[in-house]
């Protein structure tokens, strides 16, 4: 839904802002929410970011915003302690006139307002080891600053990266086989089943607390990090998916997406694989921050987490294919199968390089 400027002005009227509203324009390249840049007149008042939240994906916006307020309050305290600027190095949620961290309009749409962080640089993708290092450092720093935050966040995406839950879904879909696709897929199903025990063994360590529950970001794309003009990490943004889980999910998912030399749905499997130079860059950047707080267990499973998250993605694509394509948007009948095969190729590439990955983790943990 597109909004007229007059409608947007009326929405902003429900928040307490400084200065006089000048203009509101669609902004950025986010795929999930509709984002607007809100400019105020003159230099003395700040600008803002207005978002129309995607309620198809996020069912509990009050829970989400409560999480974001807790996380940003903790980050701001840390930034202050370190002598930094809490309004540039952490997101600032602007409350509505009724004192809530969002405004709900008459149609039931949720709107949020943040301070706009100016004079920053962003990268669209991490194509070099140096960019990957910067991305890894951003995520590592974010996690480090939140490593001592107490209490769990509201679980706004139930089941997310939860392997026990995934296997329950998997078993149910296989038992049902609603569109009769299972019979053609014995090799692919075996890709999942032959690694099931290994994946559950890891997940049990998360369930038992051997691998701790911490604050995780869950959307570690490099365009969710703002860098300052010198190229230093300034602020991690897009906190919609902050959750309590293992920080290894953030690491593993970043490796899955940053290092793939092909596309997530590449029909040409010869293009797909994990680029070790990008792995090394990201891992060194990440551990330059994260080695200060990670436990021995977390360090031990760091490289494995890339395998875990990539495996989960293979499972989810294949499960959706068997289920008749209900979750991921498809542009052909076998799109989810093409995705399954491409992610599996990436999984094989990660498995083949696991020793080298572990060696890089070890080396980066001990560098002073
Ligand atoms: P995604 O597809 O990554 O989930 P999204 O729809 O959730 O995106 P955001 O990433 O939150 O949207 O915001 C979109 C863009 O707006 C960001 O990539 C960034 O460029 C810009 N942006 C968001 N918040 C701020 C902020 N507080 N200060 C400056 N720029 C911001
Ligand atoms: Mg984003
Ligand atoms: Mg987002």
UniProtKB/TrEMBL annotation:
<dbReference type="InterPro" id="IPR002575">
    <property type="entry name" value="Aminoglycoside_PTrfase"/>
</dbReference>
<dbReference type="GO" id="GO:0016740">
    <property type="term" value="F:transferase activity"/>
</dbReference>
<dbReference type="Pfam" id="PF01636">
    <property type="entry name" value="APH"/>
</dbReference>
<keyword id="KW-0808">Transferase</keyword>
<dbReference type="InterPro" id="IPR011009">
    <property type="entry name" value="Kinase-like_dom_sf"/>
</dbReference>
<protein>
    <submittedName>
        <fullName>Phosphotransferase family enzyme</fullName>
    </submittedName>
</protein>
<dbReference type="InterPro" id="IPR050249">
    <property type="entry name" value="Pseudomonas-type_ThrB"/>
</dbReference>
<feature type="domain" description="Aminoglycoside phosphotransferase">
    <location>
        <begin position="26"/>
        <end position="260"/>
    </location>
</feature>
């Amino acid at each position: 839904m597109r909004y007229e400027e007059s409608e947007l002005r009326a929405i902003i009227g429900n928040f307490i802002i400084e200065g006089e509203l000048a203009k509101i324009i669609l902004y950025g390249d986010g795929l999930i929410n509709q984002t607007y840049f809100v400019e105020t007149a003159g230099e003395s008042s700040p600008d803002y970011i207005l978002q129309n939240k995607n309620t198809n994906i996020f069912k509990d916006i009050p829970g989400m915003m409560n999480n974001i307020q807790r996380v940003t309050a903790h980050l701001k305290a840390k930034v202050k302690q370190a002598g930094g600027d809490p309004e540039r190095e952490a997101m600032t949620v602007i409350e509505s006139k009724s004192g809530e961290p969002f405004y709900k309009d008459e149609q039931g749409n949720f709107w949020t307002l943040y301070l706009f962080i100016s004079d920053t640089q962003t990268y669209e993708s991490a194509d070099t080891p140096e960019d990957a290092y910067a991305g890894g450092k951003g995520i590592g720093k974010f996690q480090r600053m939140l490593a001592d935050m107490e209490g769990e966040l509201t679980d706004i995406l139930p089941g997310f990266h939860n392997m026990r839950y995934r296997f329950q879904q998997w078993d149910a879909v296989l038992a049902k086989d609603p569109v009769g696709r299972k019979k053609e897929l014995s090799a692919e199903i075996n890709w999942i089943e032959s690694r099931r025990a290994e994946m559950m063994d890891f997940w049990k360590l998360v369930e038992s607390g051997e691998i701790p529950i911490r604050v995780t970001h869950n959307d570690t794309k490099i365009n969710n990090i703002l860098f300052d003009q010198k190229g230093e990490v300034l602020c991690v943004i897009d906190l919609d998916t902050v959750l309590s889980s293992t920080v290894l999910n953030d690491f593993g998912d970043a490796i899955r997406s940053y290092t793939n030399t092909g596309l997530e749905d590449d029909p040409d499997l010869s293009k797909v694989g994990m680029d070790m130079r990008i792995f090394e860059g990201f891992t060194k950047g990440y551990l330059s921050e994260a080695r200060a707080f990670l436990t021995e267990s977390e360090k031990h499973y760091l490289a494995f987490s890339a395998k875990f998250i990539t495996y989960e993605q293979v499972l989810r694509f294949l499960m959706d294919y068997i289920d008749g394509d209900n979750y991921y948007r498809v542009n052909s009948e076998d799109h989810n199968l093409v995705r399954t095969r491409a992610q599996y190729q990436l999984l094989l590439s990660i498995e083949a390089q696991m020793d080298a990955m572990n060696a890089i983790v070890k080396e980066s943990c001990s560098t002073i």
